Structures
1.
Amino acid sequence: MEFAINKADLVRELNLSQGVVEKKTTIPILSNVLIEADGDRIVLTATDLELGVRCSAPAIVKKGGSGTIPAKKLLDYVRLLPDGEINIKFADNQWATITCGRSKTRIAGMSRESFPELPHLPEVLAEIPVKTLAMMISKTIFAISAEESRFTLNGALLIVRADGMVMVATDSHRLALVEQKVQLGNLKAPYRALLPRKAMNEILKLAADAEPDAKLMFSGDDNHLFFTLGQRLLISRKLTGNFPEFERVLPKEHAHAVSMDRDELKGALERVMQFADERSRAIKLTAAANEFRLHSSLSETGESEETLTVSYDGPPVQIGFNAQYIVDFLRATAETEVVFHFKDGGAAGEMRPGGDAAYTYRYIIMPMRI
Amino acid sequence: MRSIFHIDMDAFFVSVEELYDPSLKGKPVVVGGRPDARGVVSAASYAARKFGVHSAMPLRTAYKLCPQAIFLEGNLARYREVSLKVAEVLRNFSPQVSMASIDEAYLEMTGTERMYGPPMAAAHKLHEKIKQATGLNNSIGASRSRLVSKVASDQAKPNGILWITPQMEAAFLGPLDVRKIPGVGKVSEATLAKYGIRKVRDLARMDERFLAEHFGKVGMALAGKARGEDAGGWFDTEIGATEDPKSISHEHTYSEDTTDATILESTLSRLSEMVGRRLREHGFHARTVQLKLRYKDFSTITRAKSLADPTELDTEILTAVRNLFRSNWKPGMAIRLLGVHLTGFEGASPQMNLLEGDKKDRLRRVFQAADKMRDRFGDDSLSLASGMQGKFRERVHEALVIKEVIKEKES
C-alpha cells in the first residue's frame, strides 16, 4: 500500500481516532489505527472493542492495500511535520515509511489480519439532527455515575421515537432528563438503548465539526449503536442491563417554586461552596418570605452566606443539597432564568429552565440530611 | 503518686480449658489445632512450654518438640466469656481500665490508696478477686508506669505479684534482656546486638543522640523505655480512654490451599460479615474496602476500592471486595489466605438516594437484627447465604505475642 495525503486532512481524521484507541491495553493491535487505501480515499478505523470510529480522507492512492500502525505515535509525529503532502508506504514486513520533504521515518506496524472486524451497518432507523443530540448529551452527561461498578448507570438512556427523543442519566443522587420533540420519520416502535459515556463524548466531538443542520444516520443491532455523519461512522457497544425505572422517581408535583436568575444563583453557589465540605459539598438552602438564602459552614475554616431576592410567599423551608449538583445544572442550561421546585428537606428538589423552552429539561436532586 | 497495674492472665486459653476439663491440669497442653494441621500455636501450658513450645510456633513444630502434648482446637467463645468476667472485676476495682487484649489489661490505680492501701496490698486484693470470679491464676505488675508494670507482671509469672517501688525502675529493668521491653522484637533485638546492646542497662547507658541517629524515632522511645518511661506510640493514650480504630480487618488462612472459586467467594462473604459487624459495633461507615490475597507461594497482593458512599452494610462490602477478587485473582492459582480490610471511617453519608428509596435503611435494620442474634446465639447462628460454604473457625491468639510479631513486620 502506498498513498500521498495532505497533512491537515490526515491530522483532522486521526484526531477522531484518539478518543477511541486504547492507550493501555493488553491487546496491542487495539492501539493501532487501521488504514485502508482504495480509489481516491483512505479509510481510517480505530476501536477498543467498546467503541469504534471509521472515517476517511481524500488521498492519491498509488497502490491499494491496508495495514495498521500505532495511532498515537502516528498522530504525534505527523503533527510535527510541515504543512503539505505526506507520502506513506507500507512494506510487506508491516513497516510503514513516512516521507515528507526531507523527513523520512519508519514506524513498526502490525498485520491487519488481527485487527478486529467492525460490525456491519444495519438499516438506518432515523435521521437525527446532530446538534440536537449533542444538546441533549451536554444536558445529561454530567449526571452519569462515576462509579464503574454500577454498569447500567455508566451511560445514558436514549429513547428514539417517531416524534422525538428522550435522554436520561442518573448517578442515583440526581437525575437529568431531556425530551425534545422532533419529527424523525417512520419509526415503528420506540427504540431504547443505553449509550455509554465514552460514546456520548465522541458524539459531542463529531457534532462540534458539523454543519448546524447536519443529520446523523442512526441505527442499531442487538449489541451496537451506529451513528453516521457524512463520511464518519461511530459505533458503540450498548451498555447491557436495565436502566432504573426513572418514571417512577420523577416527582409528580412540588409544593413550592422560586424563580431565579441563573448567573446570580451560580455566582452565589460558587462562592458559598468554598466553605462547604470538600467531599460532600453540602450547603443549606432556605426559602423564606421573598428571599432565598444559601449557607455553608466548615467548623475549622469558616462560613459563608448569600441571600437572593425572589418572589416567594410560602412557609420557611430548609433543605440541604450538594452544591456541585446544582452548579452542574446551571452550567448546562442556556436559559438565563431557572426555576427551583421543592417541598421540604426530605423530598427531592427539581430544577428547570424558566420561560417557554422548545424542549423539556428536568433535573431532580435528592437532598442531604442536615 | 502515679500508680499503674498490669494484669495478665496466666496461660489463659489453657487455664480456661482446664476449668472445663480438670484432668488437663499439669499436663502439656497446646491450643491451636490438631498437631498435623497448618496453623500456629495459640497458647501452651507451662508443662508444654518446658519442652520449648511457645505461642505463634507452627503446630507441626510443637508436635515434634512435644509429641505427648494434648492438642486442642480451642474455643474462642469460652475465652471471651471468661475475659468479660475478668473485665467486670477490673471495672469494679478501678474506673479506668484498658483491656489490652483478651487476657491482659492496664488499670489506673493513682489515688486509690485510701481505698485499697498501698499498691502491694491493693494488688493482693485484686489478685484474689480475679481468682474468686474466674478460678484462674493471674499475675500483676505494679509501678509508676505502664511499661514497667507490664514487664513486672511478666517477671511475676506464674501466679505472682511484683511491685517495683519508685526509683527502683532502672535497677529492675537493667539486668533484663532488651527483648523484654515491649516493642523490641526479634529484628530490633538483632540490630541492637550488633552494637553490643543486649541488656536493658546497656541500652540505658547509650547516648540518646546515638539511638536517635541509628534507630530514628524508635530509638528515642527506646532510650525512654530503658529508663522505665512510657515512651513511644504504645502508651500514648490514657488508660480507660476509648480509642477508635483506624482500620478493621479479618483474614482467613485455609488449612489447605484452594482454587475453588465457590469456597473462596464464600470466605469473602464470611469475612465481609465479620468486618461489617465490627464496623457497626463502632458506629462507623467505611469509605475504602481492601482485599488481601496470598497465593500458595506466599506472594501477596492487596487491592483497594473507594466507595462513592461510605457503607456499613455487609452486602455492599462483599460486592466491593468480590469485584476486586474477580478482577485480580488468576483462576487456577491456589490461594492460601484471604483478607478483608476496611479503612476511611466516617459518619453515614448525608446524601439521600433517589433510586433506592429506603432499601438501605431496611438492610441496615436487617444487619442490626442479625448482630443481636449473634450476640445471643453465637457467630454461627446466622449468615448470608453466600457465606454458607465459607464457615471456618475463628482463631485468636493470646494477643501479646501476635502484637509483637505484627509490630515487627510493620517496623
2.
Amino acid sequence: MPKARPEQSVFEFLTYPQVGGDDWAYMSQSAQVRTLEMQLLSRTVLMDMANAPDFSAAVASLAAGEYALPQGSARFEDVQTVLLEKRANVRELFADWMLDAAVVALFKSRHDFANLRLALRRTLTDRPFGADYSEEGNMPPELIEHVLEEENYDLFPPYMRRATEQAVLGYYQNKDIRQIDYAIDQVEADHKLAEAARIESVFLLNLFRIQVDLTNIRTMLRLRFADAQHRQGLLAGGFVELERFRQGLELGSEALGQLFFATPYHRIVDAGVAYLTSSQSFLKVEQLCDEYLIGFLRSTGQVTAGPQVIVAYLLMKEHEIRTVRLILTAKKNLLDTKLILDRVA
Amino acid sequence: MISNVSATRMALLSLRKRVALASRGHRLLSEKRDEISRQLIKIARDIQPLRRQVESELSQTFRRFMLARASMEPEHVTAALAVPTKKFSMAMEFASVMNVKVPHLLKDIEGEIICYGYATTSGEMDVALLSLERAFDLLIELAEKEKQARLLAVELQMTRRRVNVLEHVVIPEIHETIRYIHDKLSEAERDNTSRLMKITDIIRK
C-alpha cells in the first residue's frame, strides 16, 4: 500500500485530494481492471435508458451489454436478480484481486455494520431476529444472532463490539431507535478511517473522509428539511469540520453556499440547496454527491498500478448497478423522465 | 287493497285516520329527504378537493419512495424500515345526522415517522415519509367523510323510496279505497231510501 502522508486539510486541494502513488504489486490486477473499466456503461447508454419510452425499451437498451436478460424476459424481478448477481460478482472479483486482506475485510465490514444495524433494531425492540441478512460480511449472521442472544459482545471483533455497546447505550438513553443508527454510523466511519490510517493508505483515508463529508452535507440538508434537531446524525472525521455543518443548520438557505465556498463542495451545496428549495427534493444533491465521489474515483486514472484502481472499480461498478436499478425502477413505475435525468444526469 | 276491504263506516273512519297519518309521514319524510340531500351535497363538495389532495400526496409519496428504494442498497432499505417508530391507533365515535349514525374517527398518532439514521439512507425516503405523514390526516378525514356520504346516500335512497311509496302508492290507494267505501255506503244508503219509499208507496196503496 502507498504510504499515507500527513492528513490533508480541506484547504489544501482544489477539487479532489490526492490518491497516492503506484504499487507495482498490483500491476496485473490493475491491467485487468483497466480492461473491465471499458465495459462500464457509458453516459450515452444511461441517457438512452432514461429517455426510453417504457420499461421494455429501457431493458432493451441494455441488451448488448453484460446486463442482458435471458431472451424474451423483461420482468422487473429478473432485472433485480441480474443486478444482485452482478453486484455479488464484482465483490468476489474485488476480494480475489486485492492482495491486502485488511482492505478486503474493511470493505466486507460494510455488510457487518448493515447486519448489525438490522439485528440490533430487531433485538432491542423485541422483534424476531429474521433471516434477511447479508451473507457477504466478515461475520456470519448466525454468529451475530448468537452473540446478541447471549449478550456476550466479547465474541465480536473490536469494531462490532464498540458499535454494539454504543448503539445499546444510545438506545437506552431515551429509547429512540435512531440512536442505534447514529452510533453505528459513527463507529463505522471511525473504523474505516482508523483502518485506512493503520494500513497507511492515503487513497482510502481520503476516500472515507470524502464519504463522511458528503454524508454530512446530505444530513445537514435533510435535518434542515425535516426541521429535526438530531445533530448526532452528523459524522466526525471528514475534511470539513463539524462546526461548519452545525453552523449550516442555523443559517438561512441563501447563506449556505457562502459557508461552503472555501470547500470543494460549494457547488454541491449551492446547486443542491437551490433544487431542494424549488422542488422539495434531494435528487440533485444526491446526484451531485455521487458525481463528486465518482470524479474522485476517476482521478485514480493517474495511477498506473495500485489498489486504488481496484477499489475505484468496485465502487464505480456498485454505483453503476444502483443507477441501472434506479432507471429501471423509475421506468417500471412510469415516473417522469425529468426526475430520472435530475438524479442520474 | 279494495278487494280485502269491508265497506263499513268503521273501515271508512279507520282509513281516514290512516290517510291523515300517511300524509303527515309523507310530509316529514319529504323534509328529511331534502335535509339529507342538502347534507350530502355539502359533504360531496368537501370530498372532491380533499380526495384530489390525498391522491396527489399519495402519488408523491409513492414516486419518492420508489426513487429512494431504487437508489439505496436493498439491505439498507430493509434495515431502515424494519422497525417503524410511528404508532397509530384509531377510535370511532358515532354522531347522529337526521337519525343516521355517522362515524367520527378519532386518531391517536405518536412518534416520529423518520425512524432511521442518515448515513445509509436516501433523502427521498424522508420526503416520501413526510409526505405520507401529511397524507395521514387528510386520509382519515377523507375516509370519515366518504363513509358519512355513503351512509347518508343509503338513507337518502331509502327515504326517497318511502316518500315515493307513500306519495304514489299508499296514499292514492287509501284514497281510492275511501272513495270505494264511500260509493258503496252511498249506494247502500240510496238502496235503503228507495226501499223505504217503495214500502211507503205499498202501505199508502
